[in-house]
Amino acid sequence: MEKELLELIENGYESNFLDFKTKMYSRKGTPDILKDIMAMANSNHLGKKYIIMGIEDDGIGGKNPCGITPEEKVDSSTYQQFIYNNIEPDVHFNLYYRDYLGKELAIIEIGDTRDKPYVIKKDFKEIKQGLCLVRKGSTNAVANRGDFEYMYSEKSGEFELKILGNYLRATDGTALLDVSFRNLSTYPVTIISGRLLIKDSQNTIRSKHNVNGFGKEVGADFRIEILAKREFTGDLYLGFESSDCLRLSLDDTGYTDEKFIFVLQFRDSTGNEYEVTSPDVTVFAKGKCLWKVKLKNQSTK
């Protein structure tokens, strides 16, 4: 299990980005899943939000991993279609499963939710069209005027991050990724740290790469200031080790047929976090960073 998830399960508590459920939501679709996902999507938390199913939470820090049964398991597309049909604009999320202490847990991970407010698209049972819920602490609350003002102020001062290329190219300790920073706000944004997570199709993190520069490599002192109403486009410099070639199953020519998911994360000088995800991407490498792959292949011949 990923370190971040393990930390949430063992030390996390219900908040505006984390919720625990004993059982999975019904595959037929219920008001509860609409309320919970919509409220999380409207949360003012800037990072990822999680609903972890298969955990009994006593509300005072005690947790019991009860797990989910095989009969409860639902395909991700089933939930996604139900949410897309009933919430607007579209909420982007993933459903995946992980083992914890011999119990299977289901995790809903809600990613980029900058298109707030998210509302009910049409009447569904007791839920009425136009309802907007916001996650506040450990509860879901009906959005008030202040909530809507905050959501729209976020959009008017939006900071956009995009991955422009569909591949990461690595050479001798450094990898390059084509990205775009766009500051639509009226204030400068100073990025002080960042990293790239490379996940496989099962949402398992295969490798992590710290950002070392933009436009040029600067190492641990990396920072970039994006002035108000400005956009920067160019190569992001990331650390890339010879062991990463093994982790990503590259062959001795530096290629793989496997498709990955890139998750790019940044933090600015005021503590705000930004994240963008790009699926169906690949990695290739050349040069000295392939020496461990070549050595491994030679030893197996």
Automatic annotation (TrEMBL):
Q: What Pfam families does this protein's entry cite?
A: SLFN_AlbA_2
Domain (Schlafen AlbA-2): give its ranges. Answer: 14-141
Gene3D superfamilies named in the record:
Schlafen, AAA domain (3.30.950.30)
Superkingdom of the organism of origin: Bacteria
Q: Which InterPro entries match?
A: Schlafen_AlbA_2_dom, Schlafen_AlbA_2_dom_sf
- The protein's name is Schlafen AlbA-2 domain-containing protein
Q: Which parts of the chain span the membrane according to its record?
A: none
